[in-house]
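A protein record pairs a chain with a discrete description of its three-dimensional fold. The following entry can be read in just this way.
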Amino acid sequence: MFNIRTEIKTILFFILYFIAVFIAEKAAPSGVCTPGGGFLLFLLSIPTSIILSLILLFKYYRSKEKRYLNSIYIISGIWVILFLFLNFTN
């Protein structure tokens, strides 16, 4: 098995996840009153991020390795960047 750092796994997960959101939105676009597949996946990314952060926090307290804490910072940074991007695109 490849020994990939936790930070790289976190970044790759979110890149692939948001590519899947984009593809799902193009495959089943959202309408006026109906959410599409991309929107539903985007909403699902919020609890996914929270659960992943809690797992990484547990691993950090168990092992005291800084790479888990860095991954939590990356998740927080991704959400801040996404929030700023969505606020300033309109």
